[in-house]
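hey m, so remember when u said the tokens were messed up on ur end? i reran from scratch. heres the input so u can diff it against urs
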Amino acid sequence: MKLYNFYIYHNSFAEQYWVKIQDPVGWNSLGKTINRRMKWHGIFYEYTPKLKFVQDGRLLIQRVYETYGVQAELLLRIDAWDELTRKYVRDFTGRLNLTTYSIDKDYVELNVEPRGLLKTIENREDTKVNLEASVTQNGSALPALSNTTVTLHSKTIIPELAANQLNEDAGEFYSYADQVVTADPIADRKYFLKLNNSSNGTWAFNNRMRVKITGLVSINDDFLVEVVIARRKGDTGVVSQSVTTVINETIPANVYDSGWIDLTILQPSFNPSYSDGLLGDEFYFFFKITYDMSGGGPGRALYLDFDDTADQRLFMQADTSFPTTPATGTLIFETWQRVLRSIADKPNDAIFFSSYYGRTENGYAADGAGSLRLMLTGNKIRELNSKGVTVSLKQLMDFSMAVDGAGIGLERVGTTERVRVEPLTHWYRAQKMMRLTFVKDLQKEVIPELIYSAVKIGYDNKALNEQINNLDEFNVFREYTTPISVVKNSLSLMTDIVTSGYTIEYLRRNREAQTRDTERDDDVICVQLRRGGLSLITDKNQDFTVLTGILDAPTVYNAKLSPARCLKRNGRLIGAGLQKNRTESLRFNFAPANAEMQSRLTGESVNTIENASPVISTLDKPLFLAEKYTFKAVLTREQWKYLNTTDPDAPNNVWQYIEFSDTDQNFTKGYLLKATPRPDSLEGEFELIRANV
């Protein structure tokens, strides 16, 4: 029985059917290559790039070329014999590239290009997809998008407002009463701070101010210095008469005009509310100087100078909150599904599968560990809903690999081909596919590409552009050095999808500025959610028994997605070249912001410390080691069937390990990296990566 049958198709063929042709020349010597792409970890089937067609195949291809030219859509189909079902099943469909056409008296020769999800992923991974678009990239109608609306909680932030004139001479002081009642206080006698958003909070002031008081006449008595604050509401332009004393200190007369004086600032009870409409309000500071006139002159010409060193500034700050706000986005499963349907032009196909990102609503038995995540943008957080979430397949792949230590591959279940995203344990299974004895030409070599001297993991610096509490933000990146010094090879596991809680809060508090863009409006942002009864709610600190080193842990966002936790999940990859260094550590080198956070989830026995240098053995165990074996072996047809089986539920499939030996004992285990079958002899050339099972 032949292993393969070959067919070609063009829409000009009579009755629109596939025409069976003679086997192309070159197929037996080159054929199909089975490749694991280590960037994604999935296994893909690729075919020889060029074939020679003879007899009927040559004549049909020549006719199509001469009639329709190089743009003709001429397809090649290969059906493989299934030893178990005793039937031929479709194994490959590709396009014959007529721009590579050449012909002589015996052959037509041209390239074969894959036509399927693999080619789609390769060609369109950078294509930006608007999730709310109603058609695919090729114009086919898409079903309505399933979106989710959640309530975003308030993340406590500490805004700081600094007065803008403290390095100037305060000038001669007129009556405080004369200043505060004017519609616009005298410009050279006011110091003001302007709120750029609304928030709740108890505001505090810096606790010292260094001043020098001078005048035209001397005074012999003590005098009292007070600093009072008045608020002018941004919507009325009227100065409020409510004032708060923030300095109330008696200055002895004998230090008058003699040098700098440190004034201690009191902590007033000042609790503005967002319901008061603070956006755009200005707060004015006025200085009152009073003293007993009995011992001196008129006492009117007094001046106040501020020390202009960096720490001598008047500012106020507060732990602030903001009302909860709604936001609408797309959950991560639907995001993956929508992007793939759009770029593959398969609007209704079950093109995506992931038990890790799938939920019960998607037909899975349980919610996957990474399933309750909302993908949205700054526009969605600010409720500027004119723009949809726009994301590329590459962004999603980078996020899944960096955050979850996941791999991406293709599976065929029955006649359905689908993209699957799962942790690496799915792609490297601790189960035996087959055993091969007396393999030939066995060699072993190191895979230097899997030996890392440095690791960079986490999120880029977008979270640090808002200049609000940057030093407290933990969801940035971390840099580590491994014990390896004989190679220079850095592993980068980075994503540009934002998980910063401060970015989320910054955007929420800028929702009033409907006509003003921010730098974050189009960024893709991920928010970790949880089940809350019948709805989804934001995930904060509910599952943590320890969460320290950050401001106000009960209002945190995305603590489960911290870089140190991403590092641990990626231990399955990082440790591949560090098997002899398991008792040594990854040395923490750098983080651009907060690396002081420590966390422990319920059920964990130790804290995850963001600035720790973890012992390599505490990371998730590597599934494979940085060693490659090459050999030749003769397989049965049933064993070749296993190598062509990507159905994860099949008893034997390509994700499992192979046992092999050049004798019939002392077997080594390895996962498939590459296999090149020889259909005429059932012999193949193999490359395996050493399995760590």
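this time it looks ok to me. Confidence is low (pLDDT under 50) at residues 164-190, 241-248, 295-301. if urs says something different then somethings off w ur setup not the seq
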